[in-house]
Amino acid sequence: MKAMILAAGRGERMRPLTDHCPKPLLQVGGKALIEYHIEALAGAGITGIVINHAWLGAQIETALGDGQRYGVQLEYSPEPAALETAGGIVQALPRLGETFVVVNADIWCDYPFARLPEEPAGLAHLVMVDNPAHHRQGDFALQGDRLGEQGEPRLTFSGIGVYRAELFAGLAPGVRPLGPLLRQAMQAGKVSGEHYRGQWWDIGTPQRLAQLNAQLTGDG
């Protein structure tokens, strides 16, 4: 099974840090955010990784290379401008296979990727986490092992999931968000989920980046 790391965002809320550095290369705890994901995926035996990029994407390719030093094989899916999550996945589909992992580059977590299902029961399996202070309303409701729009408890999508290519079948290339596809699949009962209670950070602001760095370096 291959993985895709979503690294094409502009990082507007992280400015001025992202004016000259793509968000996935921002340093925390002594290494770039994206390196934590590459190492964690490699540790789970997932060694074929596709990275999409747009803003300052050449820096990402220069910094990471072919992935040899991480024990993985990196491929890149350049986007002239960010295609959003589903659009980026559609463009990269020919490199991903029938079932694949997707992870947002701009999170930090200690989730063990080896516990992800190799074959989701439906079209997607999402890792959900407790709602952070900046997103108290959550995203979806987890009832048993099924996700839906209504019900309790409502949890936040971590940015980690396993998808079947079938979810994106027939979609034309272009800018396309993931949310509507997931909601449609949820209505058909085809999205499973799990509640992960470990460490998870959404690195959406310079303040949260600094807080995480302080935790990882022992300065917090």
Automatic annotation (TrEMBL):
Keywords: Nucleotidyltransferase, Transferase. It comes from the Bacteria. One of its GO terms (molecular function) is nucleotidyltransferase activity. Residues 2-116 form the Nucleotidyl transferase domain. This is MurNAc alpha-1-phosphate uridylyltransferase. It comes from Thiohalophilus thiocyanatoxydans. The lineage of its organism: Bacteria, Pseudomonadati, Pseudomonadota, Gammaproteobacteria, Thiohalomonadales.
